[in-house]
Fold each of these.
Amino acid sequence: MPGNVALHTRLADVRDRVARAAARAGRNPSRIRIVAVSKTFDASRVRSAAQAGQFDFGENKVQEAQQKRAETADLRITWHFIGHLQSNKARKAAALFDVIHSIDDPFLIQKIDEAAGEAGRTLELLVQVDLAGEPTKHGAREEELPAIFDAAGPCRAVRLSGLMMIPPTSADPEGARHWFRKLNGVRDRLLARGVDGAMLAELSMGMSHDYEIAIEEGATLVRVGTAIFGSRPPA
Ligand SMILES: *Cc1c(COP(=O)(O)O)cnc(C)c1O
C-alpha cells in the first residue's frame, strides 16, 4: 500500500533527524522517545506505524483515543494523552492512557491516582507548564508547580516524571529555542527546591517543526504528528 510506504518513509526520516540532533548535542539517542501524534488519523495508520516499530502514540481527545485503543488492542502500545484534560474526564483518561502530559492542577493528580488505583493501573504523569501566560494555552504557571509536586508525594498509582510545554507559535523553529531553555530553567529551580530528580527526568517538548531544536535543548519526549502521518484536515 503506497500510504504505508509514505508513512514508513516519513517515520524513518524523523528517526534519522532525531539521531542527528542527539549527536549534535552529544546526547544518547536512546534517551529520546518519539511520541507519534495520531490524532485525527484512524487506527489503520496507528497499525501501520506499529509495523515499523513505533509503539508510543499521542492523542488529545479521550473519546477518539478510546476507539483507537480498542481497535488496536492486539498491539503493545503506550498511549500518551497530550490534550487538555477536564476533571470530569480524569477517570476515563486513567483507564485509557499510560502517560498523561497535561497535568496542571493538584486536584487532577488525586483524581487520576484514585481512578488508576481502582482500575489496578499505573500511570506516568507530566506537568504542563505555561511559560508565556497566553490566555489560549493551558498549563500551570511556575509559581503553582511546588503545590502540584507536593500533591504527587502520597500517590500510589501515579508518579510524576517530568514537565511538558507547548511554546508560543513562531514561524521560525529557532524562535522556540529560548522557550525550551526556559523549561530547563524551571526544572533546575524545582531541583534546587528539593523536588526528587526522578519526578523531573522527562522534558516533553518539540513538535513537527521544532523537535530537532527541542532535542538540542534536552527534550526526552518529542510529540510529532504531521511529520509522521502527513497533514491533518483543518480543525
Ligand atoms: C497536535 C499536537 C502535536 C503534534 O503536532 P504536529 O505539529 O503535527 O507535530 C504535539 N503536541 C500537542 C500538544 C498537540 O496537540
Note: The beta strands are 33-37, 56-59, 78-81, 99-103, 123-128, 158-164, 202-204, 221-224.
Amino acid sequence: MPVNKESYLVLNNQLKEKNVCLVAVSKTKPVEDIQALYDLGQRDFGENYVQELVEKEAALPKDIRWHFIGHLQRNKVKYIAPFVHLIHGVDSYKLLEEINSQALKCNRIIDCLLQMHIAIETTKFGFNEEELVNILKTVPKYQQLNTMKNVRVIGLMGMASFSENKDLIRSEFRNLKKIFDSNVALSTINFQLSTLSMGMSGDYTIAIEEGSNMVRIGSLLFGERNYTH
Ligand SMILES: *Cc1c(COP(=O)(O)O)cnc(C)c1O
C-alpha cells in the first residue's frame, strides 16, 4: 500500500493550525515511503527498532529529525546517540544515565521524554507519577539529574490503553496532561517540560483535545503494517 499523500497533506494542515508536531511513524516501512513524505516537506519521523533506524538514517537525507519512540534497551543507546533527535520512551533512570554517557561521548545533548505509564494494561512501560516526582525531587538516588549535562528532559510521553472505550482513553490522556501541568513550572538546568507526546492514528483527536502537542502517527499515513518483528 503506497503512502497516503492526501491524508498527509490534510493532517499536516490540521496539526499546524493547532501547533501540534507531527511525528510520522515509519517503522517497518521502506525508505521509499519515507522519502515520499520527505518530498512533501515532512521532517520528523519516528522509529521503534534500533537496527532499522540506523539503516534508514544512513540511507536518507541528513536533515531528517529522527525520533526513537519504542522501548530502548540500554545496550543499544550507543547506536543511535550520534544522530537521534528525541528519545520518547525513557522509562528508567538507568536508561537516562546511559543516554547521558553516550551523548557525552558524541559531544551532544540529547533531548528526552519520560514515558509515563497511564494505561490500565500492565504491559506498557513507563514511570508512575510517584516515580516521576522522585526523579525531580531530591531523593538521594536521583540527585544526580542535575549533573547529567548531556541529557535534557523536555517533556512526557504516554500511550493510552488499546481499547474501543473512548472515555477510558480520554481519561488516561487527561491524567497525563494533569501530571504534565503539575510539573510544568519546575525548571532546572536540564529539566523543563514543554512537549507532551500523546496520540496515535486511532486516538490522536482525543489526545489533542486533552492537550497533546506532539502526535505519533503511523498507519494513517503509511497504511497498515505487516509485522516482521
Ligand atoms: C507504532 C507506534 C505508533 C504509531 O501507531 P499507529 O497506530 O500506526 O499510528 C505510535 N507510538 C508508538 C510508541 C508506536 O510504537
Note: Residues 25, 27, 48, 69-70, 159, 200-202, 216-220 surround pyridoxal-5'-phosphate (CB under 6 Å).
